[in-house]
Amino acid sequence: MKDFSEMKELLVRNVEQLDEENSLRLAKKALVEGIDPIYLLDLMNEGMKRVGKLYDCKNYYIADLIMSGLIFREVLELEEMTDFFHGTYDKKTGKVVIGTVKGDIHDIGKDIFKYMLEAYGFEVIDLGVDVARELFVKSVEKHNPDIVALSGVLTSTVDEMKEVVKSLQEAHLRDNVKIIIGANHLTQDAFRFIGADSFATDASVGAKWCWEWMKADNGQGVEGNG
Ligand code: B12
Predict the structure, then answer these.
(1) What is the DSSP letter of 176?
(2) Which has the higher per-residue pLDDT, 121 or 166?
(3) Residue 45 resides in a domain
(4) Which of 12, 14, 51, 161 could form a disulfide with 22 if both were Cys (CB 3.0 to 4.6 A apart)?
(5) Whose alpha carbon is nearest atom 69 of ligand 1?
């Protein structure tokens, strides 16, 4: 296995500097040379964190956030990436309804989680971003999924996630599904407050949870991380 340590800092720096051409070139080269696509996503994520910090301290503007999002999306859509995530896709593991909750339009983390679920063989119904709680309820009624997955990158989404769980309870659907929530800012306290069955700050950890749930016969015998 080739050692990618030299390329690592270069890629992270190119994403941080919003150099689209070089970021894509390096990502493509790394994939062709055999980098683990999950590791590549971690590197991209590191670059995005730096972009976030630069935005935080007002060196970057909203247009720069948009640009970083575009670069990440382009890497996600490289042929080697889509081949990797869709290689084992047979839709037999289980069914997941996913969406970014109301008030939030970030979708890269959600999409990465979705691709990982698909790689585990889940059928995923993606409701998109800024999803109203009523739509989550309707979709659970319509599709009868095993799992509902909520994404919310903004810290302000904690209350909305709780409302989605409450709405499912009020519609008497809560006991039919496992609920997983995901975002970098989530803590054990937020998770308890929201009332989900599991949470993850990392998409691959979350996808593993979902797979474990299904493996244990729709959740029997595997608890969440509460
Ligand atoms: C790109 C970006 C944007 C793009 C989004 C493009 C897109 N298509 O998603 C655009 C330009 C639209 C944007 C807009 C805004 N953004 Co923005 N954005 C970012 C940035 C730089 C990167 C986000 C990203 O895609 N990261 C890469 C992905 C892979 O990471 P992720 O989403 O966190 O996902 C990971 C985990 O969270 C987890 N995960 C995510 N979802 C799920 C779901 C499940 C079920 C599971 C298990 C796991 C999981 O898995 C992923 C990795 O393994 C971050 C900075 C940062 N450090 O994150 C700011 C950031 C998130 N944005 C921020 C802000 C403030 C905004 C705006 C309010 C700015 C403004 N003034 O308008 C708006 C919000 C608009 C809205 N209503 O949503 C803040 C949020 C601060 C906060 N406390 O909430 C951040 C942290 C920047 C900062 N440091 O200030 N943004």
Answers:
(1) G
(2) 166
(3) yes
(4) 14
(5) 62
